[in-house]
Amino acid sequence: MTYDDVARQFGVQRCAQCDGSYDHRIGAQDDAVIHWSDRVFTRAGLRNFLLLVADLSDDSQPKPAKWQRLWEHNVWASSVARKELHITIPTRLSAADRAYVWWHIQSATDVPAAARAWARPRKDTDI
Ligand SMILES: [Zn+2]
Prior knowledge:
This protein has 127 residues and is mainly α. 47% of the residues lie in helices and 6% in strands. The protein is built from five helices and three strands. It has a three-stranded mixed β-sheet, covered by helices on one side. Strand 2 and strand 3 form a beta hairpin. Helix 2 packs across helix 3, helix 3 runs antiparallel to helix 4 and helix 4 crosses helix 5. The longest helix is centred in the middle third of the chain and has 20 residues. It is globular and about 45 Å long. The mean pLDDT is 92. Zinc ion binds next to loops.
């Protein structure tokens, strides 16, 4: 599998050639295009790529809080990786995002129980 395969499957375009104003190593999305350099296909890379696809596809207005988008996009990425690509994204790869969400929901209102469950700090054995 390649990132082009993933792009095709999710109906997004990778930039063919652009002015290089994006960091293609980290990845970026803008105007229906994903800026992403060719590299070895890994689960971590797949997760980051799918998070860009999620950002690209998220046209919700007004934009939800960042913690909510992080939660929703991470859950979506894991879910489609498993169901459509048959690849499991290890939980540890979302540890930083879960920590961010956990921190921010402490002072938020109307936090879905599923978001709390997803972000709750886990024991090492869960990772
Ligand atoms: Zn580009």
